Amino acid sequence: AEEALRLLADWKPPPQRTPPGQDKPRLDGSADTFLTLADAYAWRCGYHGRARDGASFDGNPLRIGTRTFDRGIGMHSPAELNYDLGGHYRWLSGYLGLDAEIEDRGSVKYEIWLDGRKVHETGVLRGRDEAQFFKVPVDGVRHLRIAIGDGGDGGNSDHANLCRLRVSIGAEEPRDDFDRATATVATAPSVPEPVPESSRQRADHPPAAARAEVLALQAQAQFLTGFWGALREKGWALARSRLNDASKDARLAARSDDLKTDAELLALAEKAWAAVPAGATRLTDGRAFQLILGDGKTFALGPGSRTRVVKVVGTTIEIEQDEGRGGKLALNVACEKLAFPCCLELARMGLPDDGETRLALMLMEWLHPQGTNDGNADGRFCKALDEADRTGAPKAAATRLRAWLEIRARERTAEAALRELERLMAEGKGKEAVAFFDALGKEHAATAFWADLQPRLPALEDKLKPFRLTNGLWVSYWTGTDAKQFETFRFAQAETNLQRDFGEGTCDPRIPQDLFGLRLGGLLKIENAGRYAIKSRSDDFMKIWLDGRLILETDCNDRTVELDLQEGFHPLKMQFWEQWGFAFLFVWWKPPGANDFQPIPAEMLWHRPEEMDAYQKP
């Protein structure tokens, strides 16, 4: 299991997403099915995992070339989708290509892998290319992997679509017959990001066996968490139902022996609680005993006491109290009203003194809410298990209980990690918080905690966004003509210098000395609220937007604007175009209290890596 977790690396398998009211998985082979992100047992996507169901990478309707599609998945290279088809289907088909929103930029290539064997690849697809229809037979295939790589020129603008991705059960070959004229186009909300993927994302793919092992561990943890909850509430029928569901879960197929042992432990727990009335029956012999109720009320039994147990009917203890002068008071006490320590002792009295009983009583104590919340309970339980081993406890059951302890320890470690993350965020320790957040999916993917945390991940990521910034504005370089400025994208990089004097030369060896442009985007950091003056000078043309509003426009001259700015990060965008001759651009600011204009410090210019594509748009 540890090796599987290590190999998982940057993978973040999403939780099982069976829609409410649906009793069986979608991919059960009962009908033709359009694949979605929610059906994938694991996936990754470039630019921090921002993949979308029913929409392009930028959230627009899905379009490839001149065709618009009614369903599909929008991703960004490098990306990968993994599905368990269960051997149920005959054909896989769909449409692949770059979304039209990136125009003629970007290039990608797709590969289809079936049970570890590559069966189809597209070659390089570029912006404005028409959708490429594909179909591959998948008879008996269990594991489907779709990999998306860049076309050899880096991952810039690689908005990759997988449209109408369908698995079918019929023998007839799929055809390219989608009628875009009659399709209804709808933009679906984006899928929550399991964990934003770092810029150091691994290019290699963890072995299938390791991924399967991690998913099996997660499925086991999810099952046991619900199973324990049912046992804790003495919901025996619910616990049996959870066992039955687990026995049908393909991810737990290799753990059938564990599930049988879990059923034996369920029987032990039920047996322990059923022994409470039997133990209470022993009290009719007049022995000394303190019968304590959950509200603290106590009945002292035994020699010399005026209180005695008359009989036990079902789970009701009938008590008689001597009121003096021949008066008797009859009371009925339900076993479920007894304090837990009293129940535990009565169960001990009602069971034979053997190894199985010791195990049943330990299980009864460990599952009780008081025991569950006791941080020392697991340690005591381990010592008790060792003692039970020496006194003839069932070995398989004792071994399984040790596994329970390990699983619960992992769950508690994961919960503690989230609390630590929240502490770091509250204290404003951004760098540490981001590193902690990125590690959650790697270190705790095999827990039920991780599966349950999925709905909260987008909110956590939003809180971390201010800490996920990269220094400098994102600057993209373009060339064009008199008729069409910013026609061809050349390259992009992060920069902090807003004092650029190109003279009559070129700004970069990759760029000509005339007819070039820069688009700069990112965030302006304001540490002190107040009135700021911003001044620009350019040759030839420059525009500056702040907080989404055009504030300055220069053409071989100086311009100045004054603004009231609040503390925080403000969206900043600039666009510069050089026509002919000399070229320069300068931007200064005058913060509150300053006497003169000065260059904007590098530490005040930032950008978000996941928004680099947006910075390059007009």
Within the CATH hierarchy, at the fold level, what is the topology of the largest domain? Jelly Rolls
CATH architecture descriptor text of the largest domain: Sandwich
CA gyration radius, whole angstroms: 33 Å
- Which whole number gives the mean pLDDT? 82
The overall number of domains is 3
CATH class of the largest domain: Mainly Beta
The description of the largest β-sheet is: 8 strands, antiparallel
Number of helical runs?
14
Helical amount: 25-40%
Q: Name the assembly state.
A: single chain
Distance between the termini: 49 Å
In terms of DSSP E residues, the strand content is 25-35%
Point out poorly predicted stretches: 1-25, 181-207
Specify the structural class: alpha+beta
The count of DSSP E runs of length 2 or more, i.e. the number of strands, is 32
Choose one word for the global shape.
elongated
CATH superfamily of the largest domain: NPCBM/NEW2 domain
Describe this protein with a few key phrases:
618 residues, alpha+beta, Jelly Rolls, Toxin - Anthrax Protective Antigen, domain 1, 3 domains, eight-stranded antiparallel beta sheet, six-stranded antiparallel beta sheet, 32 strands, 29% helix, disordered N terminus
